[in-house]
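A student in our group prepared the protein record below, which I am reviewing. Here is the record exactly as it was handed to me.
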Amino acid sequence: MTQPANQLFGRSFALIGMVHLGPLPGSPRWDGSMSRLLDAAQRDAERLRDGGCDALLVENMGDLPYLRGAVHPETTAAMAIATNQITQFGLPVGVQVLAAANREALGVAVAAGAEFIRVEAFAYAHVADEGWLDACAGELLRARAGLNAEISIWADVQKKHAAHAVTGDLSVSDLARGAVFSGADALIVTGTETGSPARPQDADAAAEANRPVVLGSGVNAENVADYVNLAAGVIVGSALKERGDWRAPVDSARVCALRERIDAHL
């Protein structure tokens, strides 16, 4: 098996906990209260930190159904406010703005003091449930340089909830090398949908591109032992929530259990 190219956040296998924001201003389910949204986000962030997460990733998960490739100004503003508050918990923080609103995510990260962004469709186009998503590496890296921003780009390779027939003649290893060629700082490998684990062989193939590989779906306390030697870290959302439901609050006991299982297998 190919070993991870290097460590993330000083850990041999980093645990990144998801802070799923509730519906933001402008989304169909927005309830009109930023204070309630921020209170819920801070509660989840505190539980993730106290349970042993090494970093946090803030995402507008509650904004279903997602826009394609961009979001409205009110969404970007709300993401920046929420993310800035999450940075106060003292952990490295990342940003993802769905769906593939990568330029907005960069702006949020710069304004809020985050360290990395998760990027869909960084290199190579694909069809997501929102529609066709074009690659964005050229524009995004120019924007990062123009902002003089030290924001790491974590690029998805064959992202969940998407079809990749247009790149069907390329292997996961090919796609990973293409993302690195385009400037990705780390690579994310997922299963086919939320809660679906990545195939170990895909994680191993992506590691050939000589960048940290992060598992982006389906890892939990029961299966994490299968992955600790395949990647530099894992992003976990649903498995750390009450009843395993991404809509529910973070469950402190689940966070602690996953941290303990990771540490036991390192």
Q: What stands out?
A: The first strand starts at residue 14 and ends at 20.
